[in-house]
Amino acid sequence: SDSQASKDGYIQKFWGFNQMPQGAGGLWMNTAKPLLDDINLRKGIMLATDYDGMIANIMRGDYSRKPHGLGFGHGEYDKADNKAPEFNPSKAAEFFAQAGFNEIGPDGIRVNDKGERLSFAITYGYNTWTPRIAYLKEQAKLAGLEFTLNLVDGSSAFKYILEKKHELAFLNMGSGEIPAYWEYLHSDNANKPQTNAHTNYSSPELDKLIEAYDAEFDQQKRYALSHQIQDYVTEANIIVPGYMVPYSRAIHWRWIKYPESPMTKKTESIFHPMDIANFWIHKSAKKETEQAMKKGTTFPAVSVVDDKFKL
Predict the structure, then answer these.
(1) Which of 123, 189, 187 is nearest to 155 (CA)?
(2) Strands 168-172 and 119-124
(3) Contacts of 289 (CB under 8 A, 6+ apart)
(4) I need a surface site. Which of 77, 122, 209, 286 has the fewest CB within 10 A?
(5) CA-based nearest residue to 28, from 194, 201, 192
(6) CA-to-CA distance for 10 and 233, rounded, in angstroms?
(7) What is the dihedral of CA 201, 204, 205, 207, to 10 degrees?
(8) CA–CA separation, 52 and 31 (whole Å)
(9) 3 state SS of 171
(10) In angstroms, rounded to a whole number, what is the distance separating the alpha carbons of residues 31 and 232?
């Protein structure tokens, strides 16, 4: 995007924000693993995981934080006041102490009276994500928590997670217009391989809410049940809300044109013909540009940002 053709105005930049549905995800805690069944420990992990800092420092502020571990962009199904917890290592340390990790080892990592270190492996699937998780690892140390990096290449990582071998999983799922809860949270899927119950969390009370949600036809009642489910998951502290990419970003020849207001809430890719797209080839602009390129004449550099749907 910083090529000479871009500086000469032959190629232009476009960045448009959307509000596409975002699936569940972030850092999933496998509550079937030792120690992770303790809610105080999970509350500590929630506050010791610095996603906001990772977005600012590693992702250059390009990404946004999910307001909830169960996703975003589902209209009235989502609670309007959902907000991801802020990084707070001192408060996290208080919860770790309540969970029995009230001593600091020589390496700065907390230990309990059994000598167990407060250490969990984060499973992830792509080497390009390593700097992101390395940042979380360094920040977690401020609360006396150790994250170790468990890189399992590509699709093997998802298989590893489906088999419930992980402690913590760095993973985002897809989503449709309507949020799905049964696959992630119902007891029917907990502690079973090849299911999306990545937290292995189960609760009879939550099961009843999910079953009522799936069976409800009254739209307002269904919204209310969705909100109750999201509140329940918030209180359970089982998914640290992760990041999302609510935009379409591209470079294009200057003869590719689009309307004055190009983005809709549902425009996932501005220049993909199968998406909700509205662009065209301006033939005279193409001819003008090709002639300019031959002659070595230039145009002003253009970088457009359409942020009317920015969160």
Answers:
(1) 123
(2) parallel
(3) 10, 253, 254, 255, 299
(4) 286
(5) 201
(6) 50
(7) 70
(8) 24
(9) strand
(10) 15
| Residue percentage of the chain with pLDDT more than 90 | 88
**Residue 25, H or E segment:** strand 25-29
Which H or E run contains 149? strand 146-151
Phi, psi of 39 (to 5 degrees): -65, -30
- Name the one residue in this structure whose structure tokens are 């145009």: 299
From the number of C-beta atoms within 10 Å of its C-beta (0-12, 13-18, 19+), residue 72 rates as: buried
Tell me the residue type at 165: K
Whole-angstrom Cα Rg for the chain: 23
- Report CA-CA distances (Å) from 124 to 78, 88, 102: 27, 24, 29
pTM above 0.85, yes or no: yes
CA dist., res. 74 & res. 291, Å (int): 47
User: What pLDDT digit, counting tens, does each position of 36-95 carry?
Assistant: 999 999 999 999 999 999 999 999 998 999 999 999 999 999 999 999 999 999 999 999
Where the chain has pLDDT below 50, the residues are: none
